[in-house]
Design brief:
The complex is a heterodimer of chains A (730) and B (179).
Chain A: H1 3-17, H2 21-38, E1 42-48, E2 57-63, E3 66-72, H3 85-88, H4 91-95, E4 104-106, E5 115-117, H5 120-138, E6 143-147, H6 153-162, E7 167-168, H7 170-187, E8 204-208, H8 218-229, E9 233-237, E10 250-252, H9 259-272, H10 278-284, E11 285-286, H11 288-295, H12 300-307, H13 311-324, E12 328-330, H14 342-356, H15 404-413, E13 421-425, H16 429-432, H17 436-444, E14 448-453, H18 458-461, E15 465-468, E16 480-482, E17 488-490, H19 505-515, H20 527-537, H21 542-548, E18 550-552, E19 575-576, H22 580-584, E20 604-609, H23 623-626, E21 633-637, H24 638-644, E22 651-656, E23 665-670, E24 677-681, H25 701-704, E25 709-710, E26 717-718, E27 723-727
Parallel strand pairs in A: 6-7, 6-13, 8-9, 8-12, 9-10, 11-19, 13-14, 14-15, 20-24, 21-23
Antiparallel strand pairs in A: 1-2, 2-3, 4-5, 4-15, 16-17, 17-18, 20-27, 22-23, 22-27, 25-26
Helix pairs in contact in A: 5-19, 6-19, 7-14, 9-12, 9-13, 9-14, 12-13, 15-17
Chain B: E1 4-9, H1 18-26, E2 37-45, E3 48-56, H2 65-68, E4 75-77, E5 84-86, H3 96-100, E6 107-108, E7 114-115, H4 121-124, H5 131-135, E8 141-145, H6 152-159, E9 162-163, E10 175-178
Parallel strand pairs in B: 1-10
Antiparallel strand pairs in B: 1-8, 2-3, 4-5, 6-7, 9-10
The chains are: A alpha/beta (730), B alpha+beta (179).
């Protein structure tokens, strides 16, 4: 209604002002009824979310064929019927005006973002011809795939069929890899995703840099809230007063990079005061005496100048942990590529947990279970004589997944053998890997760069061919056979149609396989035939799964006390307090502390983290989520801000130690951070011109991360080793 | 008679904004506007900072100035639960209600009428919780009837320490914050 007709209405409606409230209410009801009537075409379709990679079960509401809202699926053990804000805002991905719409092929030099719109057949024929030539000239291993999330499963399958095992994701070497290596070395098993942390049953919870509530992995946050409601004793270690720190019984404002010193001192207190779980350690521990001797020098007094945490606080928190053992959980974190000692620091966290005796125990770490669903009976993949390209001479002996940065390095050097083609699925390598210039140098060495994604992130701007994928609400994906507290499977299925010429990844992989003469690796007609085959093989009903979205299995034991066998697949068969395999490989068998380099004068350590309404750099064109947080801010300690004459809301630029200058970013002057570091949410500061709405909103931490330290155990890239200063003329 | 109210546990709220997103989706709130929002307060000097995070919206006041000042009768008290609502077609967009609200809970919808939280009365009348309450991953929000002494909201207010925002405005707010 425009303003004129509104005034007219008021004239006529003068009478309605005197109508009784009851009549007005009745009118309101009629309107309500009319709405209900017009929404009789309301469909509720279950699927699972893809705004992050947690895979929460969801129910989409489609009103007269139009997507209305997405809610949690009450059957789903992960979401427990409640999606996180990103999942709730998932509708914005479908409606995103900036999303990729048609296949594109580059028409000028790489990175200029000038495109020809092409047909799928043209795009896939071009790709297949290039891939055949690369295979012919260099061998199939010269093609590498970067893939994040379950959506990439069929592309991975295609790559294995083509003959390349060079398949990596930033989720290992740029994220959780060091953690999983540290835990593997200690317990023989990793923490996995969803994390096997029994947060809801913990009576004492220790978060080290882990900012649950801002980091919004749904089940973790829900269990965190359960724990708070149960009165958990919360200890938070963070250079920043995170949301979690605001709820803590003990907040330890640690000097950035000194976490290892704190961990060693905590363990020293627990051992010297004999507060650790002695029966558990005696039963399951290997090399405890050697370990105890090695950590003896690390007293709280030694740790004080390193960490800035007073000795009495270190003692008090160690005793607090001991008080609630074994239900004391020291959270292993998730994104832990920080300072270069990350696998060893994660191992120290694993050892601290071992001292609590909480592995396999309620309130500690449970044993995830899953349903038995056979994989599809594909033909055998071709055998390659070449090792994976990322880790020549096994330089990083404990890397158990492919290092993306190793592929990047090989692409630049041609060693140990050339990499001439990249496929990038659903990961924005420009923002995910440190040192974007190194990534660009690698890209310039390629004969082929294909990007499959839903939005034109920076990496798409560098591609030769960009393939637009249907968003998760418009496609099927592989079956999710989850490992969690209880076994279940879930189905991703389309709830609405893709609005333009976007295609699901399974279709892309199958079509490309045909063009590569690999069609026999995709023997099913379509994905529903594939899914039905897998469900039938497991004795489950595909019809039921389509209707309900989730099929839950029988509950199984998840703790030692419930009958999980108490075996540890380490070399000693025990929890390795002292690691002979580390010693044999030339590393410290018990973690040691290395002092981090301090910031140069006038510089501040750049720290970054998550916002609850964004996933990486994937969501800044989602209008619903951008209405929540539309740009990032740089957190600067209030005293420092005063010194520079800065106040909240001012725009500045950040300049790093190598002279790289960021986009404009708003200042948040706050008492919630130390004076020696600054903080920003990761994912903003897009410079892809195709992301019209997100373009240059906020600054990119990734752009400022020109330096990184490489983890000697597993090759991960530590990124909290960059420093910035302020450019006040923004 | 029912008296609907919302109780929010600030000890659990993490400020994730799921309530804001869910409201936006449920009620098709247009881009650039929200009917609810998060307030984060930090008091003190690093590192001794006291924090409180809470979700805010219309307080559905028992003595609603927005209703009293409305020249057309568009702003009104619904006959169920004391919920304050706006008849879109009666509203002339004069903004008197925006000025009168001590909570800054209202905005002018691009279609010209004053808009705000409805306590999702369309859901409540079907026996559901408001969208924000039903989505909250921390379960920090409770909706119910204060006239019913056995309701969760009544019990929480009886058992826990709480406050309301700006009671001095005299509007009898119906949002209560547990501390």
């Amino acid at each position: 209604m425009d303003s004129v007709s509104r005034r007219k209405f008021l004239k006529i409606g003068g009478a309605s002002v005197v109508l009784s409230a009851a009549t007005q209410s009745a009118l309101g009801r009629v309107e309500e009824l009319a709405k209900t009537k017009s929404s009789k075409g309301l469909e509720k379709i279950p699927t699972f979310c893809d705004i992050c990679f947690w895979k929460c079960g969801a129910i989409a509401y489609v009103e007269d064929g139009k997507l209305w809202k997405v809610e949690g699926n009450p059957l789903d053990p992960l979401s427990r019927g409640r999606l996180c804000p990103r999942g709730t805002g998932g509708i914005g991905a479908h409606y995103d005006p900036d999303r990729l719409k048609y296949p594109l092929m580059r028409k000028s030099v790489r990175g200029e973002e000038r495109w020809n719109q092409v047909t799928w057949d043209e795009a896939l024929t071009f790709i297949a011809d290039k891939m055949k030539k690369i295979k012919n000239d260099y061998g199939p291993e010269a093609m590498a795939l970067f893939s994040h999330g379950i959506g990439g499963n069929f592309i991975k399958h295609l790559f294995k069929a083509y003959g390349s095992a060079n398949i990596g994701a930033p989720s290992f070497a740029q994220c959780r890899g060091p953690r999983d290596v540290g835990f593997n070395l200690t317990f023989g098993e990793d923490v996995a995703s969803p994390e096997r942390t029994d947060i809801k049953n913990a009576q004492c919870l220790v978060l080290i840099g882990s900012h649950l509530g801002e980091n919004m992995h749904n089940t973790q946050v829900q269990e965190f809230s359960d724990a708070l409601a149960n009165g958990v004793s919360l200890i938070v270690v963070d250079p920043r007063v995170s949301v979690a720190a605001g709820k803590a019984k003990y907040y330890l404002p640690i000097k950035p990079g000194a976490d290892m010193a704190l961990l060693l001192a905590w363990m020293q207190v627990l051992v010297t005061e004999r507060l650790y779980n002695k029966p558990y350690v005696e039963k399951y521990g290997f090399g405890f005496d050697n370990f105890a001797a090695e950590i003896l020098p690390y007293s709280p007094e030694w740790a004080y100048p390193e960490t800035g945490i007073e000795p009495e606080v270190i003692r008090a928190t160690a005793r607090e942990m001991a008080r609630y053992q074994p239900a004391t959980l020291i959270h292993p974190g998730r994104h832990v590529t920080w300072y270069g000692d990350d696998a060893q620091r994660s191992r120290a966290i694993a050892l601290l947990n071992a001292l609590m005796g909480n592995w396999g125990v309620k309130g500690g770490f449970y044993y995830p279970v899953s349903m038995d669903v056979p994989s599809y009976p594909y033909p055998e993949y071709p055998h390659s004589d070449k090792p994976k390209v990322d880790n020549p001479d096994n330089k990083f002996p404990f890397a158990h997944e492919v290092n993306t940065n190793g592929i990047r390095k090989a692409t630049i050097s041609g060693e140990p053998y050339p990499v001439k083609g990249w496929f990038v699925y659903a990961t924005n390598l420009i923002h995910a890997l440190p040192d974007e210039q190194e990534t660009i140098r690698a890209i310039q060495n390629l004969d082929l760069l294909v990007v499959i994604d839903v939005i034109p992130a920076e990496i798409a701007g560098w591609a030769d061919v960009v393939l637009p994928e249907a968003v998760y609400l418009e496609r099927h994906d592989d079956l999710n056979v989850e490992w969690f507290r209880e076994p279940f499977i879930s189905l991703r299925q389309p709830v609405v149609e893709a609005p333009h010429d976007q295609k699901p990844n399974w279709w892309i992989a199958k079509k490309l396989a045909d063009k590569l003469d690999l069609g026999h690796y995709f023997p099913w007609k379509d994905i529903e035939e594939y899914l039905e085959h897998r469900l039938n093989a497991a004795g489950l009903s595909y019809g039921q799964l389509k209707k309900e979205g989730i099929i839950r299995g029988e509950k199984q034991p998840i703790y030692f006390a419930e009958g999980v066998p108490d075996v540890f697949p380490t070399p000693s068969g025990k929890i390795e307090f002292y690691s002979l395999q580390l010693a044999e490989a030339g590393f410290d068998p018990v973690p040691k502390y290395t002092q981090p380099a301090p910031p140069p004068a006038g510089f501040f350590r750049l720290l970054y983290g998550r916002a609850p309404v964004h996933s990486f750099s994937r969501t800044q064109s989602n209008r619903v989520l951008m209405d929540m947080i539309g740009e990032n801010e740089v957190w600067i300690n209030q005293d420092i801000a005063n010194r520079y004459g800065l106040k909240s809301g001012d725009f500045i630029r950040l300049k790093n130690q190598d002279g790289v200058i960021s986009n404009r970013i708003k200042v948040k002057a706050t008492e919630r951070i130390r004076t020696d570091c600054v903080y920003m949410i990761h994912g903003f500061g897009h410079n892809s011109r195709m992301l019209k709405f997100a373009y240059q909103k906020g600054a990119s931490d990734a752009q400022l991360i020109t330096r990184y330290k490489t983890d000697p155990l597993m090759g991960g890239t530590a990124m909290n080793v960059n420093f910035v200063t302020f450019e006040l003329e923004a | 008679m029912a008296r609907f109210a919302m109780v929010i546990d600030t000890k659990k709220c993490v400020g994730c904004m799921d309530c804001v997103v869910a409201c936006k989706a449920e009620n098709k709130v247009p881009e650039g506007f929200n009917r609810d929002w998060i307030t984060t307060e930090a008091r003190g000097k690093f590192p001794t900072v006291q924090m409180e995070i809470r979700t805010e919206r219309c307080n559905h006041c028992g003595n609603p100035p927005c209703v009293h000042c409305c020249p057309t009768g568009a702003s009104h008290v619904h006959d169920l639960g004391g919920v304050v609502l706006v008849y879109h077609d009666l509203c002339i967009g004069c903004k008197a209600c925006l000025a009168s609200c001590p909570y800054d809970a209202r905005f002018i919808h691009p279609e010209g009428y004053a808009d705000k939280c409805t306590f999702c009365i369309h859901r409540v009348e079907k026996g559901q919780d408001p969208a924000c309450v039903s989505v909250c991953p921390t379960h920090c929000m409770y909706f119910g009837d204060l006239e019913d002494v056995h309701s969760m909201v009544s019990r929480l207010l009886a058992e826990r320490k709480w406050y309301a925002i700006a009671p001095e405005a005299g509007t009898d707010p119906q949002l209560f914050y547990l501390v």
